[in-house]
Amino acid sequence: MEPLPTKRSKGDYARDTARAAISMVPMAGGPLQVAFEALFSAPIEKRKERWLQQLSEVVVELGARVDELTPERLVQDDVFVTVVMQASQIALRNHQSEKLEALRNAVLNAVLSTIEEDEKFIFLRLIDQLAPVHLRLLKFLDDPGKWMDVHGIGNPGWSMGGVSTVIEHCFPAMAGRREVYDQVIRDLQTEGLVSQGSFAHVTMSGSGMLESRSSPRGRAFLQFITDTALSRQP
């Protein structure tokens, strides 16, 4: 598959939608539309180009992993096309690398995973709604010990303590900000991604502090937003 061109048409759906909405504002449509074109046309175009390049790479990767999986066959897959459309809308609204990576992997796993169709679209909604801190903390809670090894964070050798102690050790920006990570955990629990209960501040053994807190659904979600081939590399 040839690389996508660096220059693209100005017929950008996001821009056209915004232009149409602005034009409906009484007495202010004209000036607002001019301001929108001047300020946001180039950034939106750049986001679209970067995302389309990522999609191109995903299509190439799928062809390399699955025999005879050509772009022509992919566009005949209604689920894949719908996932691409929804992921693209989310991508244009975001700039955070964690969310863009999750979207890229979701498109990849729309073909490779065995997750049910409805669950794929629910997981896309979660990528859209959750903040990067939710994704980071979910990955951490899935296997704190492994997370620490991957990120080069030493284990002080806790004999007793709470999960909150491990969180603040691994995420210095959250130190002393219990209200922040407690809210993130509650959000993840609401979506059924981590185990229920107030485990963060319960005193437990050192091994208990590093136990997985993700739910089966949380692990399925992480699998959907992860490139499993890359995660298996040493």
Automatic annotation (TrEMBL):
This is DUF4393 domain-containing protein. It comes from [Empedobacter] haloabium. The lineage of its organism: Bacteria, Pseudomonadati, Pseudomonadota, Betaproteobacteria, Burkholderiales.
